[in-house]
Amino acid sequence: MARAGLTAERVTLAGAELADEVGFDQVTMSQVARRLGVKDASLYTHVRSLEDLRGRIALLAADEKTIRIAEATSGRAGKDALVAFANTWREYAHKHPGRYMATQTPIQIDPELAAKASGPRRAVELTYGMLRSYGLAEPDLTDAVRLLRSTFHGFVALEAAGGFAHERSPQHSWVRALDALHTLLEHWPPSREGDSS
User: pTM of the entire structure?
Assistant: First the structure.
């Protein structure tokens, strides 16, 4: 029998909170059960497996991050939107490191859950919409999305790992990186689709 008040949403939130504390890859069903004060078996009424829980955490985090980015970039375009987007991405990674890693980890997510989740789709829409304000179209849009994701994720991952030991503040480098991205997006090089180099 399911414990009163225990739901898939509560289990997912407990897992997300735990991920922020111990790391996404360290979350176990036993730890989540202890956090909720229930036996391990009680969780399986609400989530099928650890992989299912991981997928639910990833979708929760994608929703949270996307809502924050949408609010930050609303009414903005060009560099203002780029900076707001990037800063919100980085702030979310700082405040919720476990949840953030869930959004960057390949996970087999239940197709039914994924179909209902708006976060991942909205994230794509927001990113492509921001880049269209720079006048980009396909295939350049996809290339630019990959560049932004690589830059943002690379920076926050190195930052989290203590990879910026130089005396210059990472914040200064972050601001300069966004300046450089803005300049590049404004002067995006012409496509060389026939060139395999």
Answer: 0.90
